[in-house]
Amino acid sequence: MYVPQFNSPALVSVESANSKALFIWSAMYRMDDTVRVADIDAVGSQTVAIQFDSPSEFAAHPGQFMKLSGEVNGENYNRFYTLSSSDMIDTFEVTVGVDPQEAGPFSEHLGNLTQGDQIHASGPFGQNFYAGEPAVAILAGGPGVGPAVGIGEAAVADNHDVTIIYRTDDPAHGTRLNELDSAGASVAITDESLGRWVTELISDVDKTQIFIYGFEQFVNDATAALETVDIDPSSAKIENFS
Ligand SMILES: Cc1cc2nc3c(=O)[nH]c(=O)nc-3n(C[C@H](O)[C@H](O)[C@H](O)COP(=O)(O)OP(=O)(O)OC[C@H]3O[C@@H](n4cnc5c(N)ncnc54)[C@H](O)[C@@H]3O)c2cc1C
After folding, report:
1. Distance from the CA of 210 to the center of ligand 1, in angstroms?
2. Pairwise CA distance, residues 212 & 154, whole Å
3. What separation in Å is there between the alpha carbon of 99 and the centre of ligand 1?
4. Of the four listed, 83, 129, 146, 217, which is most buried by Cβ atoms within 10 Å?
5. Bridge-partner residues for 81, per DSSP?
6. Which string of DSSP letters, residue by residue, matches the chain?
7. Domains in the chain, ordered, with CATH?
8. Nearest ligand 1 atom to alpha carbon 84
9. Residue 211 pairs with which residues in a beta bridge?
10. Is 23 in the pocket of ligand 1 (CB under 6 A)?
11. What residue owns the CA closest to ligand 1's atom 24?
């Protein structure tokens, strides 16, 4: 099981003044509280986006993740979910893949939440977030499309270059991906090899921060794809969901 690392200011390169202020603040404040579901939407055939009311002190970067905890059928669960909103003002959002074939009861429980339900949340955690880099490329698999749209929207709002390469045969977040495309992002939704799209869409590899979000098989495929086009995977910000 992947063990998440906690924020460490010394390990993070923060590139904009706003991001730096937010980073210092989020390093100081970590939520550990009950939060209310403000809204929940099906954003794909097996994917939901859940918005929670943000406590007033809450601050986080898209790409960081939260721990959601609860009891299902008498069992306690703690699971991690990556932020998929571009900001955390008023609400924060996570995108959850609900796949009864692959997963257990907790993701299904999240998929059944309704507006007004409450759940325990703590965070933010993680260092692999959008930190104001001038060009970003996000490789996403499965529910990794959540941080892809959250980071993409934040970077578009900053007038930065955005590329999203989303491997799936059953896309989710189609509306937000279309909006990003219209706003100037390069978006490829593919069930083919990732390497081709990395070569075609990332024009200046040296200036582009690559992110990888998804379950282990996808992370392995994405890092292998980077190697085939001579990009060092250690330069990527990677979150493995497995
Ligand atoms: C740092 C981090 C960030 C994460 N961010 C997200 C996120 O943003 N969205 C999200 O949906 N999940 C995310 N996860 C995974 C999440 O924490 C749960 O593991 C997942 O929801 C399944 O939980 P479960 O209890 O229902 O099933 P489990 O019993 O925990 O599932 C067992 C295994 O099934 C596989 N699996 C589960 N769901 C899927 C799926 N949809 N596609 C392929 N394989 C799957 C995985 O290998 C998983 O380890 C993240 C995990 C980590 C460690």
Report:
1. 22
2. 17
3. 9
4. 146
5. 66
6. ---PPPP-GGG----SHHHHHHHHHHHH--EEEEEEEEEEEEEETTEEEEEEEPPTT----BTBEEEEEEEETTEEEEEEEEB-SS--SSEEEEEEE--TTTS-HHHHHHHT--TT-EEEEEEEE-S-S----SEEEEEEEGGGHHHHHHHHHHHHHTT-EEEEEEE-SS---HHHHHHHHHTT-EEEEESS-HHHHHHHH-S-GGG-EEEEEE-HHHHHHHHHHHHHTT--GGGSEEEE--
7. 13-125 (2.40.30.10), 135-240 (3.40.50.80)
8. 8
9. 138, 237
10. no
11. 104
The pTM is what?
0.90
Token digits of residue 33:
């509280």
> Ligand 1 within 6 A of 72 CB?
no
Residue pLDDT tens, the chain, 242 long: 222 333 333 333 334 444 554 555 545 589 999 999 999 999 999 999 999 999 999 999 999 999 999 999 999 999 999 999 999 999 999 999 999 888 889 999 999 999 999 999 999 999 999 999 999 999 999 999 999 999 999 999 999 999 999 999 999 999 999 999 999 999 999 998 898 899 889 888 899 999 999 999 999 999 999 998 889 999 999 999 99
